[in-house]
Design goal:
Elements (H helix, E strand, L loop, with lengths): L1 E5 L4 H10 L29 E7 L19 E2 L4 E7 L6 E7 L5 E7 L14 E3 L3 E5 L4 E6 L8 E5 L3 H6 L1 H7 E3 L4 E2 L5 E7 L10 E5 L4 E6 H5 L6 E2 L6 E2 L5 E7 L4 E7 L5 E6 L20 E2 L5 E5 L11 E5 L19 E4 L12 E7 L12 E12 L7 E10 L16 E3 L1 E3 L4 E5 L4 E6 L4 E7 L9 E5 L5 E5 L2 E6 L1
Parallel strand pairs: 28-33
Antiparallel strand pairs: 1-15, 2-35, 3-4, 4-5, 5-6, 7-8, 8-9, 9-10, 11-13, 12-13, 13-14, 14-15, 16-18, 17-18, 18-19, 19-20, 21-22, 22-23, 24-25, 25-26, 26-27, 29-30, 30-31, 31-32, 33-34, 34-35
C-alpha cells in the first residue's frame, strides 16, 4: 500500500523549516556523511596528537562475553561545529540525543526519545539525521522527533508521524507497540528525510513494513516493501540499511528483504513509486545473496551515479566476507563486484588522492577487507582502496573477477593467541580526507589510524582504549578538522 498524509506540525516549526533552507548545509549529516554515503571529510583532518574530549554513547553497555555487539548511531556535525550524538541511556534501550560544542565537548542540550529498537541479535542503532537547521531522531511508533536551531541551547521541537499525527494520537499505544524505525535516517539536500520501518502487528492506519518519507514541510508518505519492489515476497527494508539518494536528488535506493534474500530498488524520491529494481545475487554461486540483521551495510552512490551495496555470500564459501555488489544508476547493468561487503558501506576516494594510481577511474572506493580466521580465512584483516572499473581474480573464489586492489593495509596489531591473525578494522564507514590524501579508520585493537594514501601506510595512530571486539562503527571529521571515532561505547574527539 502507498499512502500520502499530511502530518500536523506547529506553525512555528514550519517557519523554522522554511528558514532552514537558507542555513548552511551540515558538515556531517548522518550515517556516512551525506545522502550518497560517500563519507567525505568537510575539512582537512587534524593531526592525531591527543584526545580533546570524550563522552559515552552508551551509558549502560551490554557485553556478550568480551564483545560489544551494538550498532551506535553516527554523530552529526553542524556547519557551526556542534556535534549531535545519539546516546543509548539504559540497558533495556532508553535513548536521548545530545548536542555538544565541538571545541570542548560542553553539553548544550539533550532531548529524550522513547525509541524502541527492533529485535536483532546485534542491537540496531538509534537513528538520527541533520538538515540545514533541523535534527531529526527516531521515536516510538515510527515517529520522528525534531529539534530546530541545534547550535542553540533552545529551539523549536516537535514530532511527526509519517502516517499522520492525528492517527498516532488516536491510538498511540497501538502504534508504539507495533511500529518501529529499523534503519538510519537519511536526509537529502532539500531537507526531506527517508527511513525504513517495521510493522509487527495490526494498526488503525493499515501499515505494512516499508519505506517512509517526510518532506521538509512535514508531509509524510510511505510505501510497503512489497509494493516498493512490486514483489509480495519482500517483507521489509533490510535492517540497518540506510536509504541512499542519487546525486540529482530524484531517486532513492533502498534494500528490501524477503527475510533471507532481497532486492535493491530505485524509487522516485518524491512519490516513492518504483523506477527500477534488481535481485541481489551472489556473483560466485548465482544464488540469492543474504541480507542479515547483524549487517549495517548501506548503498553508496558514486559520483558517476553507480550504486554499490554489500551483501553476505550464499552459500558461505567466501570466509563470511560477503560481496560488494555494483550496478549502474538504473540497476539494469550489473558491474564488477568487490571482494568484501557484508557489513561495510564503501566510501568514495577521489583518484587524485592516491598519487601512485595510474588507472582510468575518476574515483576509487575505500572498504574494510577482513578475512575471518574463524570462518576459513587467514586472519589477515585489512582495509583497502579498490578500483570499481578494473578487475583481478578473487583470492578466495578464483572463478570470480572482482574490483582490483589499488592499496591495502594489514591490521597493525597481532590478535593474541591466534598465530598470523591481526585485530579487525572496526568500521562500517571510513571517512575520506581528500585534503590530506588519507582515510581515518578505527581498529578493534583500540587505536585510531590515519591511512596515508600516498605512502600506503598508517602514518599516525592514537590509543583510544583497550582492545575490544565489537560491532562496527563510523568515523567522521568536523568542520574544524577534529576527528571523531566511536570505540568501546565512547565517542572520542581527536586532534592536534
Amino acid at each position: 500500500m502507498r499512502a500520502i498524509l499530511t502530518a500536523s506540525v506547529a506553525v512555528a516549526a514550519l517557519c523554522a523549516a522554511s528558514a532552514a533552507a537558507h542555513a548552511a548545509a551540515p558538515a556531517w549529516a548522518g550515517y556516512a556523511g551525506n545522502a550518497q554515503h560517500s563519507a567525505q571529510a568537510p575539512a582537512a583532518a587534524q593531526a592525531m596528537v591527543k584526545i580533546h574530549w570524550q563522552t559515552p554513547v552508551d551509558l549502560a553497555p551490554q557485553f556478550s562475553g568480551t564483545e560489544l555487539l551494538i550498532h551506535y548511531g553516527s554523530p552529526m556535525m553542524t556547519a557551526a561545529n556542534t556535534v549531535l550524538i545519539p546516546v543509548k541511556t539504559t540497558a533495556t534501550g532508553g535513548f536521548h540525543l545530545e548536542a555538544r560544542r565541538g571545541s570542548d565537548g560542553v553539553l548544550l542540550w539533550a532531548q529524550p526519545s522513547n525509541f524502541v529498537t527492533p529485535s536483532a541479535s546485534w542491537r540496531p542503532s538509534f537513528p538520527a539525521a541533520l538538515t540545514a537547521n533541523r535534527v531529526y531522531f527516531a521515536a516510538a511508533g515510527g515517529n520522528v522527533k525534531f529539534r530546530d536551531a541545534p547550535d542553540l541551547k533552545a529551539g523549536v521541537a516537535g514530532k511527526i508521524a509519517f502516517y499522520g499525527n492525528a492517527a498516532y494520537a488516536a491510538a498511540a499505544s497501538v502504534f508504539n507497540k507495533n511500529v518501529m524505525i529499523n534503519t538510519p535516517i537519511t536526509a537529502d539536500a532539500a531537507g526531506n528525510i527517508y527511513f525504513g520501518f517495521l510493522v509487527t502487528g495490526t494498526t488503525p492506519a493499515h501499515l505494512s513494513s516499508g519505506i517512509a518519507r517526510i518532506a521538509a514541510d512535514g508531509t509524510g508518505s510511505w510505501v510497503s516493501a512489497a509494493n516498493a519492489a512490486a514483489d509480495s515476497s519482500m517483507i521489509a527494508v533490510a535492517m540497518n540499511a540506510a536509504p541512499a539518494v542519487s546525486n540529482d536528488g530524484r531517486t532513492i535506493y533502498v534494500a528490501v528483504t524477503s527475510g533471507a534474500g532481497g532486492a535493491l530498488v530505485a524509487l522516485d524520491a518524491s512519490t516513492l513509486a518504483l523506477q527500477h529494481k534488481v535481485a541481489l545475487i551472489d556473483p560466485n554461486s548465482g544464488s540469492p545473496a543474504w541480507l542479515i540483521n547483524e549487517s549495517s551495510a548501506s548503498p553508496t552512490v558514486g559520483p558517476d551515479g553507480d550504486v554499490y551495496f554489500g551483501v553476505l555470500e550464499s552459500p558461505m564459501t567466501h570466509h563470511d566476507r560477503g560481496w560488494l555488489l555494483h550496478y549502474d544508476a538504473t540497476l539494469a547493468t550489473t558491474k564488477i563486484p568487490g571482494s568484501f561487503g557484508w557489513d561495510d558501506t564503501v566510501s568514495v576516494v577521489p583518484a587524485s588522492s592516491v598519487p601512485s594510481y595510474t588507472g582510468t577511474s575518476s574515483y576509487l572506493l575505500f572498504t574494510k577487507y577482513n578475512n575471518y580466521i574463524e570462518l576459513g580465512g587467514a586472519g589477515d584483516n585489512k582495509i583497502a582502496v579498490i578500483d570499481p572499473n578494473a578487475t583481478m581474480v578473487d583470492t578466495i573464489n578464483s572463478n570470480v573477477l572482482v574490483m582490483k586492489d589499488v592499496k591495502t593495509l594489514l591490521g597493525q596489531t597481532a590478535f593474541p593467541g591466534v598465530a598470523g591473525a591481526v585485530y579487525e578494522w572496526c568500521i562500517n564507514s571510513g571517512v575520506v580526507d581528500a585534503a590530506t590524501k588519507s582515510v581515518i579508520a578505527n581498529s578493534e585493537d583500540g587505536r585510531l589510524y590515519r591511512y596515508d594514501l600516498t605512502t600506503g601506510t598508517a602514518t599516525q595512530s592514537l590509543t583510544l582504549n583497550a582492545p575490544r571486539p565489537e560491532a562496527y562503527t563510523p568515523t567522521l571529521v568536523g568542520p574544524d578538522g577534529t576527528i571523531y571515532a566511536i570505540n568501546n561505547g565512547t565517542l572520542y574527539a581527536v586532534g592536534k
